[in-house]
Amino acid sequence: MLVVLHASVVVELVPPVVRFLRGLDVEKQDIGYVLMKYPELSGFKIEGTMSTLVAYLFLLGRGISVEDVAKMIVKCPQLLALMKNSFYFFKSEMGRPLKELVEFPEYFTYGLESRIKPKYQRLQHKGIGSSLSWFLNCSDQRFEERLYADYIEIEVQGQKYSTSPKAMLRAANAIVVGILPL
């Protein structure tokens, strides 16, 4: 059993994984945290396994900087099992900026067909713009409540406002950041 007490202990326990993460520009002090969040990584056969490297190169090839990929891995180590279809949908269908993936890499942990697409299509149908976490990081029931709420908290150029969904549809550059109780 692997117990991560400190990054230096991890270095001795799983040197191939540590070398691999360091090769992905993950800082030494973050390695223990990455392994605590994604302990399955300690069992990966790094030598001879290309899927993690392919995922890393895939992100780099999509215009995300080395530093941002490292930040994403530290925040959400499960990204190492990244799905290409989710990225394609994010970029091509949703047309969102890469910065959003850096801010919410957990996007890749949600099922594309079972969660991302259906919720995104509902937002599009209602004409609501929102952050990734606002529509993904909630239960289906909470999502429905948000869609039909009387008042929604929005952020426009750094200032927060409360408004009705219809008025929000008219607001330019509105990003939903939360919901106020009815």
UniProtKB/TrEMBL annotation:
GO terms for biological process: developmental process; DNA-templated transcription termination. Keywords: Transcription, Transcription regulation, Transcription termination, Transit peptide. GO terms for molecular function: nucleic acid binding. Signal peptide: none annotated. The keyword Iron-sulfur does not apply. Belongs to the mTERF family. This is Transcription regulator mTERF family.
